[in-house]
Write a structure and sequence with these properties.
Layout lengths: L21 E12 L2 E13 L4 E5 L6 H9 L7 E9 L2 E2 L5 H7 L4 E4 L3 H4 L6 H13 L3 H14 L5 H4 L9 H13 L5 E5 L7 H18 L2 E6 L2 H4 L5 E6 L2 E7 H6 L4 H8 L40 H5 L13 E2 L8 H12 L3 H6 L5 H4 L3
Parallel strand pairs: 3-8, 3-9, 6-7, 7-8
Antiparallel strand pairs: 1-2, 1-4, 4-5, 9-10, 10-11
Helix pairs in contact: 4-5, 5-7, 7-8
Length: 374
């Protein structure tokens, strides 16, 4: 995790041109469990062009990973239901057969999973795991596939690449295993890459290396990429656009510099406040969002974030806000009393005056965004 937030476009990032590679419209995924239907993804829509990166940010349980798996069609359990539309290169993914999706997985779209130790097969060598889908999709012989595998390991900066082909996952460090997962994902030259919290459980130095590696490979290959994380600091200088998710919904979406300059949703503000800062004294207590995420089987009426929100008013608990914009059509948010507006400030002041607990918790934290290097 980076201590300073630097916002800006990655050098060499391709501009939007032509038709979007990925168009997601009103995507919904539910899981039927004994207690009812878990609405893990609840009406998410966005577009993504080739050569550009979308950051998807939110707490654990906000629907980030399920969104990525739903787009790829990986939610194959009997209790999972996905509706809406996912157009990839003009082809509808929803309802596509497993055989048809298998042709796309690896060759057209790929995923770097969160935990490399569980996504790699512990009893199969790295070389075999790298070459099996190269041979399947690209119709290569064993020797040629091994040569490609060595080149892939070298491209993700793994030393002594030829020797590593005979290694098993447990013989490599966490950072090296994650590099192997990236090499596997890139093996067949996909146009779409999903990176699902690729730096979880890695130390800060290795996190930085992995994120730089992903940015380098994405730029060199002109891939579209969705970078999933819970940390706004990770996506600040590495994405073109950010979508903040809460309780299965997109609550704010904007170009990256715009979001950090004029964030509108209180949940986005809470995520920003929670980032540790190098200006803080040692042993300073981290700033956390009060309360817990809602029950996705029976969520509260109105805005799902209202019970934890310092700005919440009666209308927030009764009427769910829809995505809207104020200054720019590219910056949308779902909030009745957005941050940085006169109505938002009035709502916060009223809650502080009435000693509303979430508002009291915000006192003393309002300088947080000023302390960050944006």
């Amino acid at each position: 995790m980076e201590n300073e937030i630097r916002v800006g476009r990655t050098p060499g990032r391709r501009q939007v041109e032509g038709e979007p590679l990925l168009v997601v419209d009103d995507l919904r995924t539910q899981f039927a469990v004994a207690a009812g239907a878990v609405r893990a993804v609840d009406g998410v829509s966005f577009e993504l062009y080739r050569g550009r990166t979308l950051g998807v940010v939110g707490e654990s349980g906000s629907g980030k990973t399920v969104l990525s798996r739903s787009i790829m069609g990986l939610n194959t359990s009997a209790n999972a239901t996905t509706t809406g539309s996912v157009m990839y290169a003009g082809d509808q993914m929803i309802g596509k057969s497993a055989k048809a999706k298998k042709v796309l997985w690896g060759a057209e779209m790929a995923m770097v999973f969160q935990d490399p130790m569980t996504s790699l097969n512990p009893v199969v060598t790295i070389g075999r795991q790298l070459t099996e889908h190269i041979r399947y999709h690209l119709d290569m012989g064993r020797r040629e596939a091994n040569e490609v595998a060595v080149a892939l390991l070298q491209s993700v900066h793994i030393p002594e690449a030829e020797k590593r082909l005979d290694n098993y996952p447990h013989q490599m460090s966490g950072g090296m295993r994650q590099r192997v997962c990236i090499a596997i994902a890139l093996a067949c030259g996909p146009r779409m890459l999903f990176a699902d919290e690729p730096t979880t459980a890695l130390d800060v130095t290795v996190q930085h290396q992995i994120l730089n590696l992903l940015a380098e490979q994405q730029r060199d290959r002109a891939m579209a990429m969705i970078l999933v994380t819970h940390d706004l600091g990770v996506v600040a200088g590495r994405t073109d656009e950010i979508m903040v998710m809460y309780a299965g919904k997109a609550v704010e979406k904007a170009p990256t510099p715009e979001l950090f300059a004029r964030l509108r949703h209180p949940y986005t503000q809470g995520l920003l406040w929670s980032i540790p800062k190098i200006t803080q004294a040692k042993h300073t207590r981290l700033i956390a969002i009060p309360g817990r995420p809602p029950n996705l089987i029976s969520p509260p009426p109105g805005c799902k974030f209202a019970p934890r929100c310092a700005y919440a008013q009666d209308i927030c608990r009764q009427e769910e806000p829809t995505l809207r914009s104020i200054d720019s059509p590219d910056h949308v948010f779902a909030c009745h009393f957005p941050v940085g507006t006169p109505e938002g400030q009035a709502a916060l002041d009223a809650n502080i005056a009435s000693e509303y607990p979430p508002a009291l918790a915000a006192i003393g934290k309002l300088r947080a965004t000023e302390e960050l290097s944006v």
